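Record Acyl-CoA dehydrogenase family member 9, mitochondrial, 645 aa.
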Amino acid sequence: MNRIHMLKEFSKCNVQDYYKVLSYKFYSTKTAIEVVEEDASKEITKQYERLSKITIKTRKKSPQKPPFAKNLFLGVFDTDVLAYPQLEKEELQDLEKAIEPVSNYFNSISSSFLKQPFVPIDFMNNLKQLELFGLRSSQLLNGRELDVIGNCKFNEVIANATSATPSLLHNEHLGIQILLNNGNEDQQKKYLPQLINGSVLSAFCVAENDAKDLSLLNTTAKYSQEHNAWILNGRKTAVINGSIADLYIVIALTSIIGKSGLREPQLTVLLVDKNCGGITFNKKHTLGLEATDVADVTFDNIIVPTENVIGIPKGGDSVVSSILTEYRLSSGPACTTLIRKMINNLVDHCKGVNMGTISIAEADYVRQAIAEMTISLYALESVTYLTAGLLDFYENQDCLLESTIVKVFSAEEACKSAIKCMDLLGSPAYMKEHWCNILFRDALSYRHLHESSENLKLGIALLGMQHTGQSIQGQITKIRNPLFHAKYIFKRMWTHRKQGVDNPDLKLRLGDYVHPSLQEPAECLEYTVLRLQYATEILLARFGPEIVNQHMELGKLAECVIDIYAMAACLARASRSYCIGLENANYEMVIAATYCTHAKLRVKEKIKNLVEGPYASGYESYRSIAKRVFKYGQYFPVHPLSRNY
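=>
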């Protein structure tokens, strides 16, 4: 209601001004005055036309639900997720209408754009005209005010400019979104209009070469009472838009408080204008992303006014966490477009190549690669829009774990698909200018730049472990102290006897919530959920608080939950498609069933290794070998031709 009232008042005010200008009699013959009045009239007319196009968002969100992915570690499955999210017919039509001119433009971009060493000026101007900055911003600020699903769909189209995509995503999610979610009124008035109209570009500065932990950041901000400002010093590496940005959003260490010997960083997020002086940058040459600017940025005694602190001083953690979910989710649409390009280009190539008298498109090894890439793309689309739906349809939904899964899954599947593509193409794909080589290098950025997949996997597992530990702390205490809780231990041995032989009772009945044809894949999903719960309890009981240091086990556990989440998304999507009769829905059922079958086998093997322990699985051998290498400081086995007699 507040938005509607504000809109009416704003519109009313401008209409009155408009008629005042029209009724004014221009008696003066001075040219300058006539130009000013005509410009004012045009501006008011333009504002009125803009306001008349504003649409009111009417969708109501449902109350917040328990976190879906985190509850998988507890063996709890929210069956509402199997009703795949969908837009109302009018919403879908409006979205398709809005995205049509954008899609037409990006489809017209030549492939040579991918090889540009910078973002062309005319490209950025076209983005401004298409209103592709501030997609989630209010319409009153000239933004599109998209929901998360709509934003993902737009990002899919924008990602056709693959080499420039990170530049646009970082500006949107790590620049505009931070100000929208955390900026005060003055900051939003000062910077948002320029960011949304595209006249100002932002850069998010967090990474440092030597800092693997936030408490080890070398970039510091110290408060100066003399200047009533923060003095910023430090160097940030691999900053997207680093040398072309007009506004830097910098994460700086302000102090460290020790608790029980732990180093706890206190971070502050600062807005730094490029024209304030003391900023230097060094452009970097990356493996891919030819059209994205990447640079190291150095801040030397920058005086940052107190009003340029985003959020509160020493409250940077909450500022960063507020944008992580949607930022990580943005990798999904970007990698979706990458894989789709690979598949479509590879199919075109295979149609024109013969192996003897037949096309290589009929060869089994080609069909296998194409099918695997298709299944990967289907699963990636499914998890992306399932996560977007959870954010859109539920109030303040906790989807940090789901969005992190999307980022890891999208990066890994894009790289795997690119390698399969290169394997089929052979030597030509090894050439730097080949389209597959370009897409492969662009895909690598999502896996390694800023947030590596291996680190994110640990984060996935630890988030799940933390949630589980808080819920079943009492049970874990009893399992770790069997002599004091003998009755509970004997009862558990009986209730978990089937888990001990890898044959859990399937009591969740997930098959009741999807199309009957998907009964068997639903049982695969249920099996993996129950086995994940069992493995989580085993690891917590075995290692206790030390589980945070068991990175090998945590990595495998994360891979399991990634597969399980993708299985759920594929089943939900395929079931919906088949039930409402979408084109090729019968093949969607095949894709979903195939993914679930293979994912079950992967999860089964990993859980088996986790349950058997570090010695049976070989993890302890890995640790022993690595210790030996570090002891010698190099590869230690002697040459295979060596003799000792």
